[in-house]
Amino acid sequence: MEENKTPLAHGFDVAAIRAAAANLDDGAVTDGYQADREAVIAMLNDALATELVCVLRYKRHYFTVSGPGNGQARAEFLEHATQEQEHADWLAERIVQLNGSPNFNPATLTARSHAEYDDSDNVGAMVRANLIAERVAIESYRQMIVAIGDKDPTTRDLLVRIMAVEEEHADDMHDLMPA
């Protein structure tokens, strides 16, 4: 064994790992990062736009739904808006970790979003629009997860976690669909 290498029990070259880690310019992105960082950042920015449009749609529905018997829908809209905002925050944080810049530009938000905004006035149309948007988000996240594969496990895990909540949202909206 060479004298300048200090392997761990599993055969890792600790000296090489330490030398590579000394490059501080890239923050959390190490030499071992295997994904196309710019492509992942672009994907995450589109997901960020989608989450922000979903926040706005759910907030509008929360504030405008009215009528007797719509309390459950109203509560779901508010809960989902809060969770979609949390997703947006997580995505923005990951973009920054990858040395990118989160795109919050309102002028291009709807064009970059996978889901559409909705300004329906009745609860049935609101629920339908939200269910469609959740299904769009689920499929978008599924495709992003496949595209990333094992090249960026941190981003992949984040997208899996968000997709699981989007699936819960879809179930909630499906349960609220008028008969």
TrEMBL record:
<dbReference type="GO" id="GO:0005829">
    <property type="term" value="C:cytosol"/>
</dbReference>
<feature type="domain" description="Ferritin-like diiron">
    <location>
        <begin position="34"/>
        <end position="179"/>
    </location>
</feature>
<dbReference type="InterPro" id="IPR008331">
    <property type="entry name" value="Ferritin_DPS_dom"/>
</dbReference>
<keyword id="KW-0409">Iron storage</keyword>
<dbReference type="InterPro" id="IPR009040">
    <property type="entry name" value="Ferritin-like_diiron"/>
</dbReference>
<dbReference type="InterPro" id="IPR009078">
    <property type="entry name" value="Ferritin-like_SF"/>
</dbReference>
<feature type="binding site">
    <location>
        <position position="87"/>
    </location>
    <ligand>
        <name>Fe cation</name>
    </ligand>
</feature>
<feature type="binding site">
    <location>
        <position position="166"/>
    </location>
    <ligand>
        <name>Fe cation</name>
    </ligand>
</feature>
<feature type="binding site">
    <location>
        <position position="169"/>
    </location>
    <ligand>
        <name>Fe cation</name>
    </ligand>
</feature>
<dbReference type="Pfam" id="PF00210">
    <property type="entry name" value="Ferritin"/>
</dbReference>
<dbReference type="GO" id="GO:0020037">
    <property type="term" value="F:heme binding"/>
</dbReference>
<dbReference type="GO" id="GO:0006879">
    <property type="term" value="P:intracellular iron ion homeostasis"/>
</dbReference>
<feature type="binding site">
    <location>
        <position position="134"/>
    </location>
    <ligand>
        <name>Fe cation</name>
    </ligand>
</feature>
<dbReference type="InterPro" id="IPR012347">
    <property type="entry name" value="Ferritin-like"/>
</dbReference>
<feature type="binding site">
    <location>
        <position position="51"/>
    </location>
    <ligand>
        <name>Fe cation</name>
    </ligand>
</feature>
<keyword id="KW-0479">Metal-binding</keyword>
<dbReference type="GO" id="GO:0008199">
    <property type="term" value="F:ferric iron binding"/>
</dbReference>
<dbReference type="GO" id="GO:0004322">
    <property type="term" value="F:ferroxidase activity"/>
</dbReference>
<protein>
    <submittedName>
        <fullName>Bacterioferritin</fullName>
    </submittedName>
</protein>
<keyword id="KW-0408">Iron</keyword>
<dbReference type="InterPro" id="IPR014490">
    <property type="entry name" value="Dps-like"/>
</dbReference>
